[in-house]
């Protein structure tokens, strides 16, 4: 009983250790479990537990300790996901430990959840939090998301709640989307687009509101039906935003926003129509004003040519008439400017262009004013003319005309007809042409009636013609004059009306065609813009068929678009022709053409969007289809493992077949793991389609898949934008790269991958795959247990003859395999498993049986086996040692390496040799152990062992000596390389010295450089001495490693020669340095003596030259100059020894400089001879500049100049004395004697 308790405690401790080891996995699971940002794994797991156990009576989870003590939480988790496995009402009636035991057993049996807890571990005052988190994490992996239907409550009511939630959620999203759209007041600037927006608003009222109204009413009725269910569960089981009251409030708010937006749209349309009519009026008046100025210009030209031929009074009247026309024209231009300002203030798109045209009109008017002044008014300024009587006559005629109008009905009728024609013409000129199809049709119909009336008015004109018979004389002439005016005005009216009728017909035809094209394009646009790509259940094949027929310009859509393009281009060409013909409604035509081109280009962009979205949707559905296929495959394999591989007892043959089948299944699972991994990788590239309809809680980066432009808002393809609101049905609120915000069709964007659902599906598949692997391991463990039991049964049936007949190797293999399999099973399984305890008992009995059989069989074979084993080991070792001895002897006798690379290669080789040799040490020890285990040892056994050990010792001693030799030769080779480099540096430095300088400062610099070299040489001397010592050590070790060799070692002698060569070069450097220092010091001393003496003599010579200049020229009394000249000559002659001493000191310095130069030259020649590879120009490049003279040469030049000055002084004085003697010939004897003195 005591041992059984100890075993329970042992298993309990083992489970606690496993739980502590899994604690690390809990901390790492932040990555896997933490699906929400800024939420830890622990908090997420607690939320999951609360969500799963929600509405279960008696369950209130607040933490991972006391909330789980009663076990109801574990029971509710099992019941929520598998109510068929556990009766919750029955579980509530059980005791806490009983219900926990039931829940733990079901989780382990059905889902393979490792039982890391015992009921007594949980049913305590302070349960271990880490152990609970570990076990609950395992349950989360099995049940990641609770089912939507709660098993404790009415499933039909819950289904209706789910139905309400789905409809209300869709309605809530639609209201949010539409409300955001209704808040948008960024209307397009053109009338055509605004009318399109109005049509969309009308379509929203007639097509979208009614079905959503029905959904709202249905939700209201459904919510009333569910109120009893909500009361029964004690809460309203829907989100607050989906409550019917909230839905109603949002609906009313949407309707108010819609009415407000519709009112703004209609007001904007009226404003744009007013601006459009004003623009057309401005356009007509610009053309009319331009034509009037053409007439004025022609009039000025014509009258300027005939001004000299007509009476001045008539010319003045003509000038006044032209001036009055210009005044009227100026008024028209000012009116046009006012209208253009109105257009500009109203943000009319073509206001700038119209402003430029009005400005040009004004400039032309100024030119006409100047032309009138220069050509007509100027010439008439100085002309005088009498007042004529025609003015009175005209006044009389005007009175007569007025009287006729008042008294004569025919005259009055004629005047009324003239006024009617003028007013009608003015009315037609001001009439509008319309901006869209309804307005153009209205204008056409109105003018059709007007034109019919004008055409019928011809009868009245004819009646006026017939009325001429009632007038005679002056009245007839006046009547004819007015009748001609009527006929002219009526002809103009009829012509203008006919032209306007033609213009309206052509405009209507064009607008009709353009409207048809725009309608066709709008239909295509509406299909693509309103397509819901967030619907993951979209019929991809249907979309692909549509894509082939109506979207892409590359496949079947080509025929439709080509045919439409011909018609489309035909309409555009007609519009261009009308514009070129200066059609009065040019602005409306151009606006429709621009709208057609923009809509066509936009449709082309939408085809690219369709292609991209179709590809993303295809990848999305293919991915989830592959996930579903993979999950079904895993379920199928789980069924196979639960049915086919769950046998309890079987024979060895059947067991082998089952194990092979299990291994094949594992291979399939391993192969399938690659597919799981591939699907996990593919999940990273799945575009989140559902997220397109989910509310954006924070700015999100999206990528544009087409070009888009609206007013100043521009988006380029493949550029990133920031999405701030996607609640609109078709349009999203985004910011482009420049930070500009606008409403853009959502079809233009794709959300960046990955998709959360795809990641969840891949993670779910991974967990299912892991559960299948765990199930396979569990089934394979049971099968291996049963296989071992079958093998144990066979082994227990053996007797001793059968045991011996099997053979020792096969027996050991069977026992080893049996124990290894049993050990693995006990290590992998649960220690509390009864099958494992039985297996342990059975294995103990089998091992005792094997031991007994082995002990009896071993006694006979032990002695023979040991001897055979010793001989085999000895032979193998001797063979290996002989080879090692041969290799080490060969290496010892090999010549010494001559460079570092060869040495490194030898070192590596010997390291490999010692490594192989070291591997033989276990065999040496094994040979010793075998020798000691032999009970009957013979002298030969001992002799063989000593032979092996002696050879082993000799090889290691020789190897160590060889290593020491390699180390020494490495030191020597490195030292030789360093010494050679250093000596070469010293040699190059010595060779760079040139001739001695001629200044003390230069000599001091040379002396300092030589002293620095001497100091460096002194430091290097230690290295040279160490190199010689290292070579002596190398010689000693080499001779010691070759004890059998007699006579000289050629490689040592070769190395000795190289060392001596280096020593010779070193001695040469030292001697050169000593000689250079001594020569430099002597030259310095000589230069000092020479310089001081020469300076004194130079001063003396300067003094004597000064005296020489003070001597008076020899003229008549030459004798008077004799004493002064003779005294000066005597002083010069007495200075001769000092002059000679200066020459002696300078000569010594010159000689020392020559010796220095020859020494440097000899050293360089010797250096070139020793190192032929040196380039003399580079190695001995002098620091002296070209053309610079050496110090010895400079001193020689100075001495030559010095001697020349002295000799010149002597010669000059002797010549002066001779001249004195020549001038005093009577005193020749006396003078000669004095000269000699």
TrEMBL record:
The keyword Repeat applies. It comes from the Eukaryota. GO terms for cellular component: cytoplasm; hemidesmosome; intermediate filament; membrane. Pfam families: CH, SH3_10, Spectrin, Spectrin_3, Spectrin_4. GO terms for biological process: cytoplasmic microtubule organization; intermediate filament cytoskeleton organization; wound healing. Residues 265-306, 836-863 form a coiled coil. SMART domains: CH (SM00033), SPEC (SM00150). Keywords: Coiled coil, Phosphoprotein, Repeat. This is Calponin-homology (CH) domain-containing protein. The keyword Ribonucleoprotein does not apply. The lineage of its organism: Eukaryota, Metazoa, Ecdysozoa, Arthropoda, Hexapoda. Residues 39-144 form the Calponin-homology (CH) domain. InterPro entries: CH_dom, CH_dom_sf, Desmoplakin_SH3, PCN-like_spectrin-like_rpt, Plakin, Spectrin/alpha-actinin, Spectrin_repeat. One of its GO terms (molecular function) is structural molecule activity.
